[in-house]
Write a structure and sequence with these properties.
The chain has 408 residues and is α+β, with helices and mostly antiparallel strands. The protein is built from 17 helices and 17 strands. It has four domains: 80 residues, no CATH class; 81 residues, Arc Repressor Mutant, subunit A; 83 residues, no CATH class; 110 residues, no CATH class.
Amino acid sequence: MINPVDMLFLFKPDFRFQKAKIEKKVCLPANEFEEFLRNPLEDMTCIRENIDLMQEDQDEVYHCLLITGEGRRDGVLVESEGYRYARYASYVPDAAVLEYDSLSEFGARLSYLADQMVSEGTGNTTEGNWIFYFDEIQKQSGLSLSENPELAELLADMIAERPEVSLVSIRGDCLDLCFYLDYCPGCQEEQRKETKQTLADLICASEAADLYLVHKDDVGFVPVGRISRTELDAGKLDAFRDLLQARAGEIRQGAYGKEVELEGVSAGRLKELDQFLASFPETIAEQTGPESEKAGTCSCLKDLLDTRWENLHLVHDEIDYGLPHTIVELDAGTLTEAGKEAWADVLNAKVLRVFQGYSGLQMELSGVKANRLDSFSAMLAGYCSEEDYESWVNEPEEESITPVIQEG
């Protein structure tokens, strides 16, 4: 849910509502506004200077002064009734909503839409996710997300804050919502059925490539979705027959696909299977080992650039833009000083983990806007102007293939 906000709570409240109209807004320096909140009965210069604007009219409407602080969202409605202090006052957590009726109405529309999407998704899904196409959203709400990508991202951010939602993916024509299964009655029934299956049963029945084995001791994600029934029948995994016959103790929809925990299987055995399935160069495999994941949990991206990363894919911890751009090379010397300044928010993003995912070597980050992460990867892949690329990216010291600059 949303982060904690400052609110006013009264003991045994008596909600006697009063109609109010804002006659003027006064924005104080932040320190003066803080002092006003601590001592609201002190005389205020701004109240004295606007004393004639505040009164109760014959229709019992309070004509008020809205007092806010610099850099603050909250404010206080004041009707001084001829006095120089806040004789009648009402604290408001979000002053902008009071100032602009259109903003309040728009926020209510988005909030209602987010509620409806989460309710529909959790109530109907049997697999843990639900897709909402932009044209359907437009018919329902009148909001065109396909023509307003910023609006789509705002709605995705709102939905991602809901406790039922584990991930929101923005696709070309839809939003794909992934839910925690505890909130999905249909998934719980399907899960009870699936837990009776073995790993071999799941592989044979699954049409999805995003099937992963996980373990409570955190071995990362073992991508068994890439195994086909033909390979099983051919005996290519006979060395792992114990795993294939192990039963699925828990199946859940995770951030990157369907996650399966097997009963009675050790973490070491899963690591052996992961190494067997790996089809990447040894150097890349070493980068994604347990030490790399451990380092990622306490580091920023810029802290890990002493290592040269190749064919890297940056992904966001909450919002998925689909298949990420491939960063051919990234290290401490990739960006110029101008590039480091322009992309400081991305470089300061927290690295949660490094792992082998569906796209290959992936690094999951938080603390940065998803669209900025996507734009950074696109820039390094050459999807920016030639002028920006030359300003932000250093020329390689050794002869190598550089990205082709693609306008647009």
